[in-house]
Amino acid sequence: MDVSRPRQIVIAGAGIAGLTAAIAFARRGFAVRVFEQAPELAEAGAGIQLSPNATRLLDRLGVTEYFLPAAVRPERIALHDARRQRRIAEVPLGEAAEKRWGAPYLVVHRADLQSALKARAARDPDIEIATGARVSDAALHARGVTVSVDRGGAISESMPLLLVGADGVWSSVRAIGSGHHSERFTGEVAWRATLRRDSRAGAALAEIMPADQVSVFLDPRFHLVAYPVRGGSALNLVAIAKGSWNPLAKGPADPAPLEAAMRGVRGPLGTIVKDAGPWTFWPIHEVPAGLAWTARQGAALIGDAAHAMPPYGAQGAAMAIEDAVTLAELVAARPGDLTGALEAYEAARRPRVEQVAKRGRFNKWMWNAGGFVRLGRNMVLARRKPEQLAADLDWIYGFDAMTADAR
Length: 407
Description:
The protein is 36% helix and 27% strand. By secondary structure, the chain is α/β, with parallel strands linked by helices. The protein has one domain (8-183, 287-397): 3-Layer(bba) Sandwich (FAD/NAD(P)-binding domain), CATH 3.50.50.60. Helix 1 runs parallel beside helix 12 (316-333). The longest helix is centred in the C-terminal third of the chain and has 30 residues, at 338-367.
């Protein structure tokens, strides 16, 4: 690497991954420019689970204090058989999580987390965020990388030390590098809704979805997760089921496919689709494993841009946060050796992400089990102690992306 190159980082995308990366790089003395193609920074109305491997990093970056008043610290994750609506297992969280993993397990509305990241980034004079601006091209050459930014038709160029693609599953930076869009639809859809606790539907669901836990309902045709957000005043719902996707379709989402998947479920859970609307529709995509995440001349992908995966482990945001911090730490630790830093980043992150994705595939198989496999699953989980189930998650939740061992 030419040591005369500026210590400037250009980041495409101002979501969770991009803003976390901006804060992490600025913390290490880099000047950061973030380009977001949306006209303003806003996040869709849905919740997010932040496990200890994510919250410990957000706390060190000074982000947690901005969203903590709106976050909820659930006491447990409770797994239920959706047909019987009977609890079959639980993982202790709350104080037990902080003692075991050294950081809290929190649930929060995405808008509250996005606002917190924006507020923390605004506090740092080395971070500049431009909206209505898109990274439209990147040229890799012997001297590094030249980045083109489109601001309403006006094109500007710069040569930063590093271009970070944090622009999500439909990443334009990844497409620039590979020459094509490589994401693929999984055939599943996430349906999301937010429900006020003091509403009629919220009261009806209180018995099966207590306000102090993450409730998971398992069925061969769907799974549904519910947890409190907005300081406990609202309930976030997300249901995953098979579905189709028409990218040209417009207008409000029709939850009929979700209703069909949940047909036969009794009680408040059985009427949740009509009681809890409106529902938003999100087609689940994944990025195939094996694609390069870095270019030695000065480009790297993080988060969903690198490795979008189905949400069966609630680790999408956590992996993006880990990516962002690891990349910043390695680039800062190797001045004059950007190529080595990028190689170390991919070598450190790829096995970790692949292991988490593998666990997600196992969860999908287990959660959607039917017939005798479902009965066996219920029996095995019911016999395991909560502490044993927590121990199974030590390698995920106990991980620290800022430690030397993690890098």
